[in-house]
Design goal:
Elements lengths: L4 E2 L2 E2 L2 E5 L3 E6 L3 E7 L2 E4 L4 E5 L1 H4 L9 E4 L2 E2 L2 E2 L2 H16 L8 E6 L5 H13 L4 E6 H8 L10 E6 L4 E7 L2 E8 L3 H16 L1 E2 L2 H11 L10 E8 L5 E7 H25 L2 H10 L1 E4 L8 H9 L3 E3 L6 H9 L3 H7 L3
Parallel strand pairs: 3-11, 11-12, 13-19, 19-20
Antiparallel strand pairs: 1-2, 3-4, 4-5, 6-7, 6-8, 9-10, 13-14, 14-15, 16-17, 17-18
């Protein structure tokens, strides 16, 4: 028997299991958790020391007996044990419930994950004490979260740029007309910045510093006013701490190949959809969402390359989990859109 309601309170959850961050939504309470998808593991005592924000703070600063790992890579589970422990911790903290209540869970996953990868996500969530698990493609959930009328007979195009993947979908009549997932996202941008700092400045920086550079001066098209930033790291040849000044122009060039992949994937989608839906999208435009969509002027770059209206979702970081959460109250639509 599914214990979906205990003492009048729902136990259902929606989870956006992201490469960079995991969000949890509870009906009636909204988003109750939004933390980095990181687990700190003590190798000496074989135990988890921290999960989420506390674990992320340990990245690059752990002692020899401690490792900070990210259970997901490119949008799918890479470390099953760490993913299960992370999910269990997030579900427990989100619920404020007794241990015997087992929630029904909707999980957002990349559009083109394999059958094996689907099974891995489902099994990890079930072992984390879920009673039922529904997998929903992230662009579909993002479209619902962004308020697109996906059940109407019109074309809706969404581009969800996450940490590990960029998912592109065209949806009409509550069905996917086109889907494409490329394993490029915010993490790839960070790695491009790390590589650039090594090649151009001989400076070794960590993932957190690269992300900060991306947030502060990263862009996909030229900025109105130039920006600069001081970056600190370890010099590869001297082995000593050093700082350099980097400009928005050189970071934009470092990010160019990653941004090009996203733009090419969007153009490819527009070339493959039926003409009637293409006409709808020409009128309605493209909606972008996900953390990667926050890169400055990415909407402008897409607008210039596609010649279509491009707008950002109202809350791009939480579109997927909000959409998945709304589906918990529409079981018929949930079962129709859930992946097998």
């Amino acid at each position: 028997m599914f214990l979906g309601n205990v003492f009048g309170l729902t136990t259902d959850l929606a989870i956006d299991l992201g490469t960079a961050n995991t969000c949890v939504f509870v009906p009636g309470r909204g988003i109750v958790l939004n933390e980095p998808s990181v687990v700190a593991f003590n190798t000496e005592h074989n135990r988890i020391e921290a999960v989420g924000t506390k674990a992320r703070e340990m990245i690059g600063r752990t002692p020899q007996n401690m490792v900070a790992v990210r259970p997901l890579r490119d949008g799918v589970i890479a470390d099953f044990d760490a993913a299960e422990r992370m999910l269990s911790d997030f579900i427990r903290r989100s619920h404020r419930r007794t241990g015997w209540v087992r929630p029904r869970v909707v999980v957002g996953v990349p559009a083109e994950i394999t059958q094996v990868e689907r099974r891995a996500v489902k099994d990890s969530t079930l072992r984390a004490k879920a009673s039922e698990v529904y997998l929903i493609e992230e662009p579909v959930a993002a479209a619902i979260g962004a308020g697109l009328p996906i059940t109407e007979p019109t074309g809706n195009m969404i581009v969800d740029i996450g940490g590990g993947t960029t998912d592109i979908a065209v949806i009409s009549l509550a069905g996917l007309v086109y889907r494409k997932s490329v394993r490029v996202g915010g993490d790839e941008m960070d790695m491009a910045i790390i590589d650039h700092m090594k090649r151009q400045h001989g400076l070794l920086i960590g993932e957190r510093t690269a992300e900060q550079i991306k947030i502060e001066i990263g862009s996909a098209a030229a900025l109105e006013a130039p920006r600069e930033m001081e970056v600190r790291g370890r010099h590869l040849l001297e082995g000593l701490p050093k700082s350099v000044i980097v400009s928005d122009g050189e970071i934009r060039e470092a990010l160019k190949s990653t941004v090009d992949v996203i733009v090419h994937a969007v153009r490819g989608a527009l070339e493959k959809i039926p003409p009637e839906l293409a006409a709808d999208i020409y009128d309605r435009g493209v909606v972008i969402t996900g953390g990667g969509s926050l890169l400055r002027n990415l909407d402008e770059r897409l607008r210039n390359d596609t010649e279509l209206p491009v707008q950002m979702a109202e809350d791009p970081l939480t579109s997927v989990v909000r959409g998945a959460g709304r589906m918990l109250s529409n079981l018929e639509l949930l079962k129709k859109l859930a992946m097998d």
